[in-house]
């Protein structure tokens, strides 16, 4: 089977914040997500950010939300948060024991196996808002471990290799 070679993806991730602007990397918005706890009397809050990837301009690029969690919530709750955000993807992060982070991506309706712009946005949030230093390792459930590094141009990551099985009738495709 043919294998698609590694591809390097370098991107500028611009984020904005109403309180400060520090080009080329700033925060769009920071907010809290609150949900009832098991006894329905307390609310659990999570930090959430919205970022625009692949741009240095406001209201451009590819937006993604990043939600910082202490532990995983049920998939139905993750999907509901993503639906509320109504963005292409919402990234959810949980710190791992090895210094990396577990990372999952949800659209408003389903979990997806990989999302490059939300991964880059996650790295930016960890660097700029949490104060961690790159490089960042993200353990994912369907794409392995992803590494995001900071370069002079912004953040960069290597996309995982995928085996390609074209299938079908090559003659019919060529015709």
The gyration radius over C-alpha positions equals 18 Å
Strand coverage percent:
35-45%
Mean pLDDT: 77
Question: What is the molecular shape?
Answer: globular
**Helical percent range?**
10-25%
Number of alpha- plus pi-helical segments: 3
Overall strand count: 11
Order of helices and strands: EEEEEHEEEHEEEH
Q: What ranges have pLDDT less than 50 throughout 5 or more consecutive residues?
A: 1-28
Largest sheet: 11 strands, mixed
End-to-end Cα distance, whole Å, is: 22 Å
Structural class: alpha+beta
Task: Walk me through this protein's architecture.
This protein is α+β, with helices and mostly antiparallel strands and 175 residues long. Helix content is 18%, strand content 37%. It is built from three helices and eleven strands, in the order E-E-E-E-E-H-E-E-E-H-E-E-E-H. Strands 1, 2, 3, 4, 5, 6, 7, 8, 9, 10 and 11 form an eleven-stranded mixed sheet that branches. The two termini are 22 Å apart.
Element layout with pairings:
Elements: E1 8-11, E2 13-14, E3 29-36, E4 43-53, E5 62-69, H1 75-85, E6 89-95, E7 101-106, E8 111-112, H2 116-130, E9 136-140, E10 145-151, E11 154-158, H3 170-174
């Amino acid at each position: 089977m043919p294998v698609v070679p590694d591809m390097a993806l370098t991107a500028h991730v611009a984020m904005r914040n109403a309180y400060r602007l520090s080009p080329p990397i700033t925060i769009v918005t920071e907010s809290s997500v609150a949900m009832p706890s098991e006894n329905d009397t307390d609310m659990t809050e999570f930090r959430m950010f919205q970022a625009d990837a692949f741009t240095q301009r406001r209201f451009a690029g590819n937006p993604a939300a990043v939600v910082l969690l202490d532990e995983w919530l049920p998939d139905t709750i993750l999907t509901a948060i993503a639906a509320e955000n109504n963005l292409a993807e919402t990234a959810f992060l949980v710190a791992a024991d090895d210094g990396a982070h577990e990372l999952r991506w949800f659209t408003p309706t389903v979990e997806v196996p990989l999302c490059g712009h939300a991964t880059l946005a996650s790295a930016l949030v960890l660097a700029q808002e949490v104060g961690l230093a790159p490089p960042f390792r993200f353990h994912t459930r369907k794409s392995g471990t992803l590494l995001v590094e900071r370069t002079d141009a912004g953040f960069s990551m290597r996309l995982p290799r995928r085996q390609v099985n074209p299938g079908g009738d090559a003659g019919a495709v060529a015709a």
